[in-house]
């Protein structure tokens, strides 16, 4: 089955003019890999908002989520601290990829490297209905491990 496609307006900024647009690496990929538009030396523990050289206009009712690439996280400890980053449909500034280096070594980002992936997603907005009492449930106020630890559930 074909996935629905959402057209997104994209503008290349001067420092991103020669770079490829974010692209799906395979037919079934959920995210488009996005490349860095700058060189960055990311020392251990440091963060950086990596330029992509792109600004976008996402249709109303959609967002773009900026997610880490698992390969960078697993091999180097380099990930997105605000994952999933949110690109609002009304944002017209440069799309940036926030990265943090949790690894022990400086991570060199070269212009053109695929640093994260962009997932286009529908947005569901809520409205508040204020009440005095909420309905009772079996869970109630239990949370944060209330159902037990890592072992399988009994039975
Ligand atoms: O990884 C990200 C996250 C955000 N943004 C841009 C697009 C987004 O629409 C805007 C605001 O993001 P967010 O709402 O997460 O940040 P905030 O700290 O709440 O800032 P603001 O007060 O501007 O909403 O910043 C990025 O370019 N990359
Ligand atoms: Mg915000």
TrEMBL record:
<feature type="binding site">
    <location>
        <position position="82"/>
    </location>
    <ligand>
        <name>substrate</name>
    </ligand>
</feature>
<dbReference type="InterPro" id="IPR036157">
    <property type="entry name" value="dUTPase-like_sf"/>
</dbReference>
<feature type="binding site">
    <location>
        <begin position="86"/>
        <end position="88"/>
    </location>
    <ligand>
        <name>substrate</name>
    </ligand>
</feature>
<dbReference type="InterPro" id="IPR008181">
    <property type="entry name" value="dUTPase"/>
</dbReference>
<dbReference type="Pfam" id="PF00692">
    <property type="entry name" value="dUTPase"/>
</dbReference>
<protein>
    <recommendedName>
        <fullName>Deoxyuridine 5'-triphosphate nucleotidohydrolase</fullName>
        <ecNumber>3.6.1.23</ecNumber>
    </recommendedName>
</protein>
<dbReference type="InterPro" id="IPR033704">
    <property type="entry name" value="dUTPase_trimeric"/>
</dbReference>
<dbReference type="GO" id="GO:0046081">
    <property type="term" value="P:dUTP catabolic process"/>
</dbReference>
<keyword id="KW-0460">Magnesium</keyword>
<comment type="pathway">
    <text>Pyrimidine metabolism; dUMP biosynthesis; dUMP from dCTP (dUTP route): step 2/2.</text>
</comment>
<comment type="function">
    <text>This enzyme is involved in nucleotide metabolism: it produces dUMP, the immediate precursor of thymidine nucleotides and it decreases the intracellular concentration of dUTP so that uracil cannot be incorporated into DNA.</text>
</comment>
<feature type="domain" description="dUTPase-like">
    <location>
        <begin position="19"/>
        <end position="148"/>
    </location>
</feature>
<feature type="binding site">
    <location>
        <begin position="69"/>
        <end position="71"/>
    </location>
    <ligand>
        <name>substrate</name>
    </ligand>
</feature>
<dbReference type="GO" id="GO:0006226">
    <property type="term" value="P:dUMP biosynthetic process"/>
</dbReference>
<keyword id="KW-0479">Metal-binding</keyword>
<dbReference type="InterPro" id="IPR029054">
    <property type="entry name" value="dUTPase-like"/>
</dbReference>
<dbReference type="GO" id="GO:0004170">
    <property type="term" value="F:dUTP diphosphatase activity"/>
</dbReference>
<keyword id="KW-0546">Nucleotide metabolism</keyword>
<comment type="similarity">
    <text>Belongs to the dUTPase family.</text>
</comment>
<dbReference type="GO" id="GO:0000287">
    <property type="term" value="F:magnesium ion binding"/>
</dbReference>
<keyword id="KW-0378">Hydrolase</keyword>
């Amino acid at each position: 089955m074909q996935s629905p496609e959402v057209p997104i307006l994209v503008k290349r900024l001067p420092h991103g003019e020669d770079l490829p647009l974010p692209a799906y690496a395979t037919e079934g990929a959920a995210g488009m890999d996005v490349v860095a538009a700058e060189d960055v030396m990311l020392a251990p523990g440091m963060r950086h908002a990596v330029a992509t050289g792109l600004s976008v206009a996402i249709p109303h009712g959609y967002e773009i989520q900026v997610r880490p690439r698992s390969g960078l996280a697993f091999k180097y400890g380099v990930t997105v601290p605000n994952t999933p980053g949110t690109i609002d449909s009304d944002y017209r500034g440069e799309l940036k990829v926030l990265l943090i280096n949790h690894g022990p070594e400086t991570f060199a980002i070269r212009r053109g490297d695929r640093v994260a992936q962009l997932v286009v997603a529908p947005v569901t907005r809520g409205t508040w209905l204020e009440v005095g009492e909420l309905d009772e449930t079996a869970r109630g106020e239990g949370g944060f491990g209330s159902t037990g630890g890592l072992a399988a559930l009994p039975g």
